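Why Protein CPL1-like domain-containing protein? Reviewers of the renewal asked for a concrete example.
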Amino acid sequence: MFLVVPMIVAALSYSVAAAEVFAGCFNPSVININAIFPRSYNTATITCPEVCRRLSSPQDTYAYSRISTVQPNTSLCWCTTVQPDAAHLIADSSCPYPNLSAELVRPPPNWGWYKCFDFLAQGPANNFTVQSLPECLTACSTYPNAYFSHLDNSNNMFCACYQRGPPFTTDQCGVGVYYHYYHSFGPSEFVKRRISGFEDGEQGRGLCPSGLSACRIKDGDDYSFECIDMETGLESCGGCIHGEVGTTGYHGEAVNCLTMPGIITNSVTCTKGRCNAFSCDEGHRLEYGRCVLVE
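Here is what the prediction returned.
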């Protein structure tokens, strides 16, 4: 099983503030655009999901939008409860015209989207079936990362919840590829009380499941952390990059394996707290699990 981060968030630092999440790019047949009244809006001042929210649309509304070919800086927006159909899914998150970009207008709180990840190429995901994207995000509410996928064109939808984010991502978010959603949430009052009661030098015991460490997501912030296995975590291998909750120091041995010189994505592992490369980029040679620059 692969484990991997919220966004400002390790590996890729992301920031969460979106009120809507991307649900995919679909060809125009995904909805009957002639039966739903389109709203024209200025893309410099408002978004399609915001247009839908101002119309007091239902909770499960999707906002479908595409660039207008008539006026510059203008797009057309369709607000509907019609859930995207995988039969019309396009494997390109840039969603070129005339395709429609679909966004879930009111997702469960504090979720954002960041590209996609091909689980199938990396081994099986611990997935389960769901009926919709909102159901997946709700089911993963206690995890920082959720993965949602149409594994085929028949609208079989699958979800997987993980502690950490993907080691790499792709913009080609088509059938069989998982959409990566990240969750930003503050600690509970219980967690806050525990952190406040730590003595200097005491580690964040009890904040994470056994075998995982409470690593800060950013320097000096004990209230923003993720649970990491420092023995196997690619982006925090051998320690916590920004220090462990409840401590004042940093783990000098902590390494982000993915940013080491000469490393090729998907060609490095973290084993027993040590980065081990098994392939190197051009201009580097492999020596004892490290990529060394060729002079």
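DSSP finds three helices and 17 strands in the chain. This is the kind of structural detail the renewal will allow us to pursue systematically.
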